[in-house]
Structure formats: structure tokens, C-alpha cells
Design goal:
Layout: H1 21-46, E1 51-52, H2 81-87, H3 95-100, H4 107-110, E2 147-154, E3 159-166, E4 172-173, E5 180-181, E6 186-192, E7 199-206, E8 221-229, E9 236-243, E10 251-257, E11 265-270, E12 280-284, E13 290-296, E14 301-306, E15 319-321, E16 328-335, E17 338-344, E18 355-359, E19 367-370, E20 373-374, H5 378-382, E21 388-394, E22 401-408, E23 418-429, E24 444-449, E25 461-462
Parallel strand pairs: 20-24
Antiparallel strand pairs: 1-25, 2-3, 3-6, 4-5, 6-7, 8-9, 9-10, 10-11, 12-13, 13-14, 14-15, 16-17, 17-18, 18-19, 21-22, 22-23, 23-24
The structure holds 2-acetamido-2-deoxy-beta-D-glucopyranose (NAG) (3 copies).
């Protein structure tokens, strides 16, 4: 698939084959020009976000490789009935089994208890430190509820807004073979200047309690809300995954507001281009064009489509990407003119291996570059640090540095799902596809670094 979709302008030359010297020289020249050119573009993009920095950024420490060791507990006589059902009585438990088993001795490793909360009010010496997987409180002292979320940087208020699913209700199964779920409560919004101290702005799009035919009726599904602002209409537009309890509606929903803190007015849902759409995200490019990216054809491929000028619908154009690769949870970002995307595999609430993808044009072709996760240990890397991607946000003032945002789903109690936010950088040669390593362009590696505890450079904040 990768080969078929290569642009014809790409310079093919495998490591083992013969290449003409002039071609090699020209591709190097082109590469240098491209880097030069794109560094100018980048400079211009970032000029708009005012960043406050007390001292020169030290991003290198964010890239330190940190190990994470844990001992698998010895086999036990008693396990929860759910765990036995999942893997049968005999097979020795894997780390993922332990993760999914709410009675596991490792539970506190994955879901540390209330004593270790990240608390912006009583943070003390831990102020500004991210602890992936710990409970995270807002400025009122309540756990943050913004799952499957995304950030919006609002230039008017020079503030970050974090939107996500409010899952502050009981977890249950709608029927015997149904997935674990929480009723639709609504989309929460939090605001921050430093990405660490979050103020609750309330539920900006509530679920519907009574009207059973409404898309947001509480027994339906609302996932992965994302918000962007339209520069022309000035409206804040929210896109989200809308479904029924059995995930057969497979649609996208659209809501709109004149303020980042809502209230959002729900407009409608549809199957984009007539296709099923489950996990999705939206991406606003530097030129003001925005795109919808959604898992389709039963999650076997992704589709990408430009939104209309007002962002309230998809345009006619649609491309299929990553065909047959069964990816979901897409998170897009752009660095030096190249588009990148992180996706997960499709294993329900259970964690799996992330993949990074890259493209010259957002409409594709997209190439797969391998697992971005660095550090931790092998199990951590093969499970995206026991989490699933949801968003990647650039860090103004720190070129090439991003925040990777993921959800550590707590299958037994979805309201207690945790956030795994880690530094992401773009740089160095990609692991795959090796067959193009002499070609043009050479993708840069996307790396997400495991840290048990980390912080942004001192004094980093917007405005
Ligand atoms: C903060 O750190 C200092 C020096 O390590 C220590 O003396 C102090 O007790 C700590 N305070 C808190 C609240 O942990
Ligand atoms: C219930 O929701 C549907 C779909 O949004 C709408 O057409 C209908 O008017 C609503 N009914 C009431 C009583 O609000
Ligand atoms: C979901 O599936 C279950 C089991 O097949 C069925 O009983 C139920 O009516 C379905 N619900 C909806 C809303 O489709």
C-alpha cells in the first residue's frame, strides 16, 4: 500500500540499489532548501502566541529516557470473575490482563489512589509537575472530567481551553454483550494559562435527560469532542462522535457557540459522505482550512475531508488513508510544514501500541513510521504507556516540542479514567519506512517520552 501511494516525484532509491550521484546531490539540495523554507513558515506561525518564559527553555530534560520497572505479582488463587472470563483459568496473566483486572495487585501502579492527587491549590513542592496516571484536580479541588478530549488555544483570551467527555457517572453495561459505558452527561470545559492549573468552566454542551429521540439523549454515546474557532465567523465549532448504545449509528455531531466557554448549541449529526464514522478528530491548519479525520469502514481505515468554510459541515472531497490498517483515536499535528498523526489500534478500552504517521499533504498519502513511545519498559511502549491517544498540542516558545495527550481508560470505573500527558518531540530519522531512507523526503521521528514525573520549563505559560 505504501509503495502504491508514493508520489511520483519521490526519489526512489533503496539502500541496496544503485543511485546516480547527481540525483542524490539534488535531493540533498532540495532537502536543505525545504528545511530552510519551512523554518521560516514555522517562525511565522508561532509568532502569534504570546509566551511567558522566565528563563531559556530546557527541553532536553524532557527527552531523557526514563525506565519503569514493575514486578508481575505471583499467580493468585482468587481472581475477579471478570478476569477469569476474559482470559480463562489457565493462561498466566499478562501485564494487560493485570491492567484490566480491578483486583490486581498492580492496580495502584496504573491508578494511584487519592493520596497522590495532582492538586493545583495545595501543590506545594509538586507544583507544575505532571504525573501521568495520577488523579488530577481542578482549582475547585474536584477531579478533572475531560476524557477523550482536546485543547483549543484561544487568541482572544490568550487561554487554553480543554474540552472532553464528562464521565462522572456510574459505569455499567447496557446489555450482556455491550461495552462498558457511562450515560452522556455532557462536554466539560476547563481553562488554563500554563496547561497545569485548570479552572472548571462547567458543562458547555449538556446531555439530554428526557427526549429519547435526541442525539444527546443520555443513553446514547458522545465521544472525543474537539473545538476549533472559525476566523471568519468567529464561532467556536465543536465536532464529536455521536452514536447509539450499540455503536451502530456511527455518526459525527456538530455544535456551535459564540464563546469558548459555551453554551454550545447542538446542530445535527450525520454520516460523513455516507460512511460510518467512529473515533474522529478535527484539525485546523495554518491557512485557516480545517479537516475532519474519522475511522470508517468498521474502523478498517481512516477518512479525511476538508470542512466547509464555516466549519459546520464536511465538503464533498474525501480521501481514504491508512487503508486496512485498523487505526483509531487519531491525533494530528504539524511541524515544519509536515503533517503528523498518532493513532491507536482498535481493542476497545484495552490499551495497545500507538503508531506515528507522516504526510507531506494532509490529504495524503500518509506513511506509517512505527511506534513513537520511548522509555518506560517494553510493556509500557507496547501499550502507549497503558493509554490511548486523544490530542497533540504544540508548545509555543518550544520549537519542535508538543504535548501528547492520552486517556488511561479505567474499564471498571470509567469516571476514574486518568490522563497521560507526556512531552512529544519531532526530530531524528524515523524507524520506518526504511526503504525510503535515501529518498525524499526523509520523515523525522516522532517520539513520546515516558516520564513518571515531569514539568515544562520553569515559567512556561501563555500571555
Ligand atoms: C518542599 O521541599 C523542601 C526542600 O526539599 C522541604 O524542606 C519541604 O518540607 C517541602 N515542602 C513540602 C510541602 O513538601
Ligand atoms: C426531541 O428531539 C428531536 C431531535 O432533536 C426534536 O426533533 C424534537 O422536537 C424533540 N422533542 C421535544 C419534545 O423537544
Ligand atoms: C442494542 O443491542 C441489544 C442486543 O442486541 C438490543 O437488545 C438493543 O435493542 C439494541 N439497542 C439499540 C438502541 O440499538
Amino acid at each position: 500500500m505504501r509503495n502504491k501511494h508514493r508520489k511520483s516525484s519521490a526519489f526512489h532509491c533503496n539502500a541496496g540499489s544503485r543511485c546516480s550521484l547527481p540525483a542524490l546531490v539534488w535531493s540533498l539540495v532540495a532537502c536543505v532548501l525545504m528545511i530552510h523554507f519551512s523554518s521560516h513558515i514555522r517562525h511565522d506561525d508561532k509568532a502569534e502566541v504570546p509566551v511567558h518564559l522566565n528563563r531559556k527553555p530546557l527541553t532536553r530534560e524532557l527527552e531523557e529516557i526514563e525506565e519503569e520497572n514493575f514486578q508481575m505479582p505471583p499467580p493468585r488463587g482468587k481472581r475477579s470473575p471478570r478476569a477469569i472470563k476474559r482470559r480463562g483459568p489457565r493462561r498466566p496473566p499478562s501485564a494487560i490482563d493485570e491492567f484490566l483486572d480491578e483486583s490486581s495487585e498492580l492496580r495502584n501502579l496504573f491508578f494511584p489512589d487519592r493520596r497522590t492527587v495532582i492538586d493545583p491549590v495545595n501543590g506545594g513542592n509538586d507544583s507544575m509537575y505532571f504525573y501521568p496516571g495520577r488523579q488530577w484536580l481542578d482549582t475547585d479541588g474536584n477531579p478533572i472530567h475531560a476524557h477523550g478530549g482536546g485543547l483549543l488555544y484561544d487568541e482572544n483570551s490568550e487561554t487554553y481551553y480543554w474540552y472532553g467527555e464528562n464521565k462522572d457517572g456510574p459505569t455499567y453495561q447496557a446489555h450482556k454483550r455491550g461495552a462498558a459505558r457511562v450515560d452522556i452527561i455532557g462536554v466539560s470545559c476547563y481553562s488554563s494559562k500554563d496547561l497545569w492549573t485548570w479552572k472548571n468552566e462547567g458543562i458547555v454542551l449538556p446531555g439530554e435527560e428526557v427526549n429519547t429521540t435526541h442525539d444527546l439523549y443520555k443513553l446514547n454515546v458522545l465521544e472525543r469532542p474537539k473545538v476549533i474557532q472559525n476566523d471568519k465567523t468567529k464561532q467556536y465549532v465543536m465536532w464529536m462522535h455521536i452514536d447509539d448504545v450499540n455503536y451502530t449509528k456511527a455518526s459525527v455531531g456538530v455544535a456551535v457557540s459564540n464563546s469558548p466557554t459555551g453554551p454550545f448549541e447542538y446542530l445535527y449529526s450525520k454520516r460523513p459522505h455516507g460512511f460510518d464514522s467512529r473515533d474522529m478528530t478535527i484539525f485546523k491548519d495554518d491557512d485557516g482550512k480545517a479537516y475532519l479525520i474519522y475511522s470508517s469502514e468498521d474502523n478498517s481505515e481512516l477518512h479525511i475531508s476538508p470542512l466547509t468554510e464555516d466549519y459546520l459541515d464536511v465538503s464533498q472531497t474525501m480521501r481514504r488513508i491508512l487503508i486496512g490498517r485498523h487505526r483509531e483515536a487519531p491525533a494530528l499535528f504539524k511541524d515544519k510544514g509536515t503533517y503528523y498523526m498518532i493513532t491507536s489500534g482498535c481493542t476497545g478500552w484495552a490499551p495497545n501500541r500507538a503508531l506515528a504517521h507522516a504526510a507531506e499533504s494532509i490529504m495524503g498519502p500518509w506513511e506509517t513510521m512505527g511506534n513513537p513511545c520511548v522509555g518506560g519498559n517494553k510493556v509500557f511502549r507496547m501499550t502507549t504507556f497503558f493509554s490511548q491517544s486523544t490530542f497533540v498540542v504544540p508548545l509555543p516558545g518550544l520549537p519542535g516540542s508538543f504535548m501528547f495527550m492520552a486517556d488511561r481508560w479505567n474499564l471498571a470505573d470509567l469516571r476514574d479514567s486518568r490522563y497521560v500527558w507526556l512531552p512529544l518531540t519531532v526530530g531524528g530519522p524515523a524507524d520506518e519506512p526504511l526503504e525510503y531512507s535515501f529518498g525524499f523526503p526523509v520523515w523525522s521521528r516522532v517520539s513520546v517520552y515516558w516520564h513518571r514525573k515531569w514539568k515544562l520549563p520553569d515559567g512556561w505559560r501563555v500571555d
